[in-house]
Design goal:
The chain is of the alpha/beta class. The protein folds into two domains: 125 residues, Response regulator (Rossmann fold, 3-Layer(aba) Sandwich), CATH 3.40.50.2300; 135 residues, 3-Layer(aba) Sandwich (Rossmann fold). 47% of the residues lie in helices and 18% in strands. The strands form two sheets. Strands 2-1-3-4-5-11 form a six-stranded parallel sheet, with helices on both faces. Helix 9 links the parallel strand 9 and strand 10.
Length: 330
């Protein structure tokens, strides 16, 4: 009888070991848990965000971490972005890299994430809080001033101009708009700004609709500035439809295939161009460094340059204007 119980006990022990091996066992000794970093853009449709995604993937591969990419479809969906942040906190991410689409609405979710022990890095657009690890972004005020300087140059310092704004609550574009207005005072004091308070909204379609209204109202325009990709493209389409592309001096912000083509054709006179790929890359790297207890800079400037039809073919411009995203996103 004792032999039978001994045999049965051995069998049960073996079964227990087998089940343990097939279940959710702890990490083996010496095997480091893979860090999980959530990257949350303002939206997912514009080329700018795809470039950030590509940069995040590069960091993921280099560092051996897991990057999870998720954001709202539209860049005015505050509720959805808040829910995405909260969901990632619930899922116990090690880090979050966030481009807040509203500098106030995302404060509470970010502070709750920080309080829960998640290392949060803010990218692209600032937040009205100091409860995050680092801010990785363009100096947007400088980018706006670059736009003003270029517009004043191509307008010859005189004439009538307007600025089509992006959307209220977007800290990045608000700083570009402020930089542009400051630059116009400095570089073009004789230029009359006929409209500076109209918003294009978060899609190229809504920006084109507003641009159509402005071009109808102001028929003797000499210059235009737009502060992001969607407003720039919407205004471009409106100028093309009205037969004014290449006639009205036009400076925008960010790049895409369509904007680069228009720049080459002389329909756009300048683009303040960021480095979104580098923003995504450094955002993830900074989050990982913070998780590991390494020192990180509170503010990391990812750079902005003015690209014109005259300098766009220089070798160092190609990777910024038309980055190869396929190697990272396919």
């Amino acid at each position: 009888m004792q032999r039978m119980w001994t045999t049965l006990g051995a069998a049960l022990l073996a079964g227990s070991m087998f089940l343990t091996g097939c279940g959710n066992k702890p990490e083996a000794a010496g095997v480091e848990k893979k860090l999980r970093i959530a990257v949350i853009p303002k939206g997912t449709t514009h080329v700018f965000w795809k470039s950030i995604h590509a940069g995040a993937v590069k960091a993921e591969r280099e560092l051996g971490v897991e990057v999870i990419w998720k954001g709202p479809q539209k860049e005015d969906d505050r509720k959805q972005q808040i829910e995405v942040v909260q969901n990632f906190v619930t899922r116990k991410m090690d880090g979050i890299v966030l481009a807040p689409l509203d500098d106030s609405a995302l404060v509470n979710p970010v502070e709750a994430a920080t309080d829960a022990g998640v290392k949060v890095v803010i990218i692209d657009s600032d937040l009205k809080s100091d409860k995050f690890v680092s801010f990785v972004a363009t100096d947007n005020f400088v980018g706006g001033k670059l736009g003003a300087k270029r517009l004043c140059e191509v307008m010859g310092g005189k004439g009538k101009a307007l600025m089509l704004r992006y959307a209220e609550g977007s800290a990045s574009t608000e700083k570009r708009e402020a930089g542009f207005l400051e630059g116009m005072k400095e570089y073009g004091p004789e230029i009359e700004l006929v409209s500076i308070n109209q918003y294009g909204g978060v899609t190229a379609a809504s920006a084109q609709e507003k641009a159509d209204q402005l071009l109808t109202k102001f028929k003797d325009l000499d210059g235009i500035f737009c502060p992001n990709e969607s407003t720039t493209y919407g205004m471009l389409r409106s100028l093309q439809t009205a037969g004014l592309a290449g006639k009205v001096k036009f400076v925008g912000f960010d790049s895409s295939e369509a904007l680069v083509k228009a720049l080459k054709a002389g329909e756009i006179n300048g683009l303040s161009v960021q480095n979104p790929f580098n923003m995504g890359y450094l955002g993830v790297k900074t989050a990982v460094a913070a998780i590991k207890g390494e020192p990180v800079e509170q503010r990391i400037d990812t750079g902005v340059i003015m690209v014109t039809p005259e300098n766009m073919d220089q070798p160092d411009m190609a990777g910024i204007l038309s980055p190869d995203l396929d190697q990272w996103l396919k």
